[in-house]
Amino acid sequence: MPNPLISWNSSIDCCSWGGVTCTSNGHVVGLDLSSETISGPIPGSFANFSNLRVLDLSSNNISGPIPGFFANFSNLRVLDLSSNNISGMVPGFFAKFSKLTSLSLSGCRLNGTFPKEIFQVPTLQTIDLSGSLPDSIGNLKMLSTIDLSIVISMVQ
């Protein structure tokens, strides 16, 4: 599969870039950059994609914390940051993701406890986390899938 980042050229419309999904009126609503050998922190230029519904940065070598500008992604439905070197705490602004249906942070280097705000997102259906789970997971009334394989392997 060709690297979609090769097509990212500021002289052409970003809706024609590889890994980018746009609406008919040109709003970027999806970034699928999974397995693209991206390294370093999540670029600040991603803050310009405020209409994102899907952000998949899984299986890269992204490091550093989850950036604060993610709080502006109020339309986000799918967030997959799994299998990266993302570190630090999971931010509490996840409560702003009122449309989020799928969250994957497994295989990252996160520390601390997961904020209870994650477990108050009413639309969350699929969650894949590494680490311990708080009692507030019971608040996810729409949850249909949860991956506890890492937690179970840590207990055994």
UniProtKB/TrEMBL annotation:
Keywords: Cell membrane, Cell wall, Glycoprotein, Leucine-rich repeat, Membrane, Receptor, Repeat, Secreted, Signal, Transmembrane, Transmembrane helix
Cellular location(s): Cell membrane; Secreted, Cell wall
Keyword Secreted applies: yes
InterPro entries in the cross-refs: Leu-rich_rpt, Leu-rich_rpt_typical-subtyp, LRR_dom_sf, LRR_N_plant-typ, RLP23-like
GO cellular component terms attached to this protein's record: plasma membrane
Topological relation to the membrane, as annotated: Single-pass type I membrane protein
Annotated Leucine-rich repeat-containing N-terminal plant-type domain residues: 2-23
Pfam families per UniProt: LRR_8, LRRNT_2
The keyword Signal is assigned to this record: yes
Stated family: Belongs to the polygalacturonase-inhibiting protein family.
Protein name: Leucine-rich repeat-containing N-terminal plant-type domain-containing protein
Organism whose genome encodes this protein: Prunus yedoensis var. nudiflora
